Amino acid sequence: MEIRNQTRVVNFLLLGFSEEHGMHPLFFGLFLSMYLITFTGNLFIIMAIVSDSHLHMPMYFFLSNLSFCDICFTSTTIPKMLQNIQTHSRVIIYSCCITQIFFFIVFGCLDSLLLTTMAYDRFVAICHPLHYTVIMNSQLCVLLVLGSWGFSILGSLLETLPLLRLSFCANTEIPHIFCDLSEVLKLACSDTLGNNIVVYFVVTILGVFPVVGILFSYSQIVSSIMRISSTRGKYKAFSTCGSHLLVVSLFYGTSLGIYLSSAATPSSRKSLTASVMYAVVTPMLNPFIYSLRNKDMQTALGRLFSRVATPY
Question: What is the pTM of this model?
Answer without folding.
Answer: 0.89
